[in-house]
Design a protein that fits this description.
The chain is an alpha+beta fold. The protein has helices at residues 2-15, 22-32, 42-46, 67-79, 109-113, 121-131, 151-160, 182-192; strands at residues 50-54, 57-64, 85-91, 95-101, 132-135, 138-142, 166-168, 176-179.
């Protein structure tokens, strides 16, 4: 699976000028075999996630609209040795949502000071699990509603990965970044990997 993904990614980089910035990331992708690592959670912090530090440890949490997303995220956290759990959150404005979070761990403390945060394929997959959706032929990656200062960095990180995207503000159904072209959607699928078993076709590119 990793070899096939690398071949497809090389083809995408050759055919799409916007994907040329993927060359360095591709080298990393080939070297580490896309093994899950704690640094992947940068993808959540570029999306809707939040990081809290305490006593030399840090915890990442993210609010998601469906239970399958929370369950998948907890599984991803545990693969990376970060523990994890999720809880139901209810309020009148948002209805029922779910909060997925890691344990407080030392492995996440580097993300607290990382600037800019680097998006890799593993992080992109986490972002899609947390806040990815299809709508009218476009794919949207959701952002943290009240973290406006992060939004430009999130767009830059996508572009660095070969996925330049259009920003959609809160009045347009965001905040989110929209990926529209067929070539970039193919690259997005290649980088993110297989659709989680519990996700629907409208959740995954």
């Amino acid at each position: 699976m990793v070899i096939a993904a690398v071949v497809s990614l090389k083809d995408a980089c050759r055919s799409d000028p916007y994907a040329k910035s993927m060359s360095e990331q591709l080298g990393l992708f080939e070297r580490d075999g896309a093994e899950p690592v704690p640094a992947d959670l940068a993808g959540l912090l570029l999306g809707p996630g939040h990081l809290v530090s305490r006593n030399g440890r840090a915890r990442c949490s993210v609010l998601v609209p469906e239970a399958w997303r929370a369950e998948e995220l907890v599984g991803e956290f545990q693969q990376r040795g970060l523990g994890g759990e999720y809880n139901v959150s209810r309020d009148e404005a948002s209805g029922t949502q779910f909060v997925a979070r890691t344990d407080f761990v030392e492995a996440l403390t580097p993300l607290a000071s990382a600037s800019p945060r680097v998006l890799n394929p593993g992080g992109l997959r986490l972002w899609l699990i947390a806040a990815g959706r299809f709508s009218e032929g476009n794919y949207y990656l959701g952002l943290a509603l009240n973290e406006e200062a992060r939004w430009p960095h999130s767009g830059a990180a996508l572009a660095q990965l070969g996925l330049p995207a259009a920003f959609v503000g809160p009045r347009g159904g965001g905040p989110a970044y929209r990926i529209a072209s067929a070539k970039r959607l193919r690259l997005l699928r290649t980088l993110a990997g297989e659709r989680p078993a519990t996700a629907t076709a409208t959740d995954w590119p």
